[in-house]
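User: Structure tokens for both sequences below?

Assistant:
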Amino acid sequence: MLSDHPSHVPAHLRPWHVNYPAYAPVDITPPELTAAGIAASVADGWAEPALTPTAVDWSARQAALVPFTVVDGQPRNPAGRTGRTGRDLGRWGENAAADAIVIIDTNDGRFLLLIRRGDCSRWALPGGMVEPGETSRLAGLRELHEETGVRGVAPIYTPAYVGYVADPRNTDQAWVCTTAWLYRQHDDRPLPRVQPGADAIEARWFPFTNRTRLVADIEAAGDQFYDAHGPLLTAASRRLGRPRTATAASSTEGETA
């Protein structure tokens, strides 16, 4: 599932152990993470002050969700070469996130809560970065409430997915890994009202039988799904089993991560 790479990085050259003398990644660091803007970003609380990864104490960051190596002070993306360098994330190396997969089974079928992201307008799971001193489970609940207004969902405390996320901001030196918490309940009352907030510009309940059908329905409506969250939904589907209704249960086939 480590697959977020630009097409110009051939698959056989992505592994770090493969020699690639002509490799020339593009620096995607935005102005707010350069010397001119870093102070404001640090003051806003979302970025660390190190302008280069060599300024980071990597011995304190080796307990990561996905193990990675550091060579000459430079962390190496565990997925291999990305074709991008610098950082477009708050931290160098692994950026720990938490996502909420909220499922409600009703007599009318299974429903999944999604948000429309403000940064790309694609439908995605509610979620965001884990704050200092916060557990991933609490981060998932916090992000869920901030982005949808939903509280009081019933959690399944074992994560549905823990691992690398093919986030479009990933670079060779900074990337996202997440813990996706599954929240599921059976309820024949009307679906809870949702109210978008924080980084979400819209929130909505979607009929959900599996990832493939969900993406097809979203695209048929002229929208797009946030591809990086596809593996998270596939993992959740395997945990959930079939929906309650015969109609919803008719399509549980053909999902790949």
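Moving on to the next sequence.
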Amino acid sequence: MKLLIASLSVWLFALPSFAGDSIFLGSSTFLGSEIMGEDRPFMVYLPPSYSVSKNIYPVIYLLDGDIHRFKGFVGVLESLSTETLEKQVQESIVVAIPNTNRSRDLTPSSLREWKFKGQILDIFTQTGNAKQFRKFLENELIPAIDTAYRTSQKRVLIGESFGGLFAADTLLNSPSVFTDYLIIDPTSLWDNDYLNREFNSGDKAFKPKSRVYFAFANNSHLGEIGLTNYKWGTTFASSVIDSTKGISQQQYFENETHGTVALLAWYNGLKVLLPCTK
């Protein structure tokens, strides 16, 4: 396994007419994965103090990590972790992981036709590769990041929608890969209540030491589909909260939808999972 030299630089913006210095946000590179059989791109953000200190830092792994989500999330994190907003959370490294095949890698079971009460919600060519993608994270990407940067033992996984489904499945089946989980409006409707069925399966004792923050949106405008996704999701979240003896929590954002809830989830979730110890 080899961490390749950064191939691109990611710039937040540059204003040559007004200043001579560009504002650097992070770097984009890739890792040749034997597990996935493909090159996997990712982007890395280092906190402002990284170059002037010898500190070690938590690492946040951001799923669905396209350039827009990367820039948006890093903006929230840096604001909260610096004097801009009174250092409410810890400075952290961010590793954003773009998708190469979203439905393949983020779903835990194989479905060609995704149905709810006989209605076909979507049709896929590839699903059910979550276990292998998780193996890539655990055995290739995380070791590469730990080798290249000054990282602490604290690792946070952030996933939304299908990414939230993946994060929840990771919590159930490999909880020690990450110490903390920020799960945003997960696709709980997947495979006829997969998460609750997996949680209640008799062949495992679920006793995680992880702290989890769940954020749920108001999707009542989607009718029974939205209401059921919320019901199954909060049922799963309540089971996790009970199992983690109250160190985890869930929050409902009545004025946000599935597509808008992420910003508030990041803001509130980071304060719960990465509070700054002043």
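User: Anything stand out in the second?

Assistant: The CA atoms of residues 17 and 250 lie 46 Å apart.
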